[in-house]
């Protein structure tokens, strides 16, 4: 299985970009099936490509859950071998909150965060005083604020932690945390 597990890691690393693949223990035990928990189904196509690259060496079975806490609990309890759904900040927060020691073993991919609207078609259509909802969770709030800054919608003061501090300057928008 060690050779098969290395093939899985190689296939995943081929798609990598700062999104950790997590493990509680070394999942390289004697099996040809690796259960990986994910949250939601937005990454299914990526895992299909991983499986195509692995061929018959290792079978990947996705265990899709809707809640990151349940997904981490499945990993901790041994129901799954690996988890691939959260970024480092979310993992650190989960470990701190739950007294666990889930450890990244490699990086996979990063899921994009988008600016979405049912009312406007372009960022250029935003007007002063428009409202944008941002995630309440500190880890995703920081990502959302970075997306808004990259779109030149807000400016984050240098040296300020976008997760912990009120940081909006020169903003033409009203930002509201989603509760």
From TrEMBL:
InterPro entries: Lipoprotein_NlpA (IPR004872)
Pfam families, A to Z: Lipoprotein_9 (PF03180)
GO CC entries: membrane
Membrane topology per record: Lipid-anchor
Signal peptide location: 1-30
Keywords per UniProt: Lipoprotein, Membrane, Palmitate, Signal
Protein localization: Membrane
Protein family: Belongs to the NlpA lipoprotein family.
Name of the featured protein: YaeC family lipoprotein
Organism listed in the record: Facklamia languida CCUG 37842
């Amino acid at each position: 299985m060690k050779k098969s597990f290395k093939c899985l890691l190689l296939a995943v690393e081929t798609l990598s970009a700062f999104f950790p693949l997590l493990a509680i223990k070394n999942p390289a035990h004697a099996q040809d099936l690796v259960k990986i928990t994910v949250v939601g189904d937005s990454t299914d196509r990526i895992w299909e490509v991983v499986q195509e690259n692995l061929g018959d060496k290792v079978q990947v079975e996705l265990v899709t859950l809707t809640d990151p806490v349940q997904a981490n609990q499945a990993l901790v309890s041994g129901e799954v071998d690996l988890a691939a759904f959260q970024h480092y900040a979310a993992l650190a927060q989960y470990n701190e909150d739950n007294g666990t020691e889930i450890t990244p073993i490699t990086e996979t991919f990063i899921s994009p965060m988008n600016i979405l609207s049912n009312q406007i078609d372009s960022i250029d259509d935003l007007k002063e005083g428009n409202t944008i909802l941002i995630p309440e969770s500190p880890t995703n709030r920081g990502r959302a604020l970075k997306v808004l800054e990259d779109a030149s919608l807000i400016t984050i003061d240098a040296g300020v932690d976008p997760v912990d501090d009120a940081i909006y300057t020169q903003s033409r928008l009203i930002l509201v945390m989603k509760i």
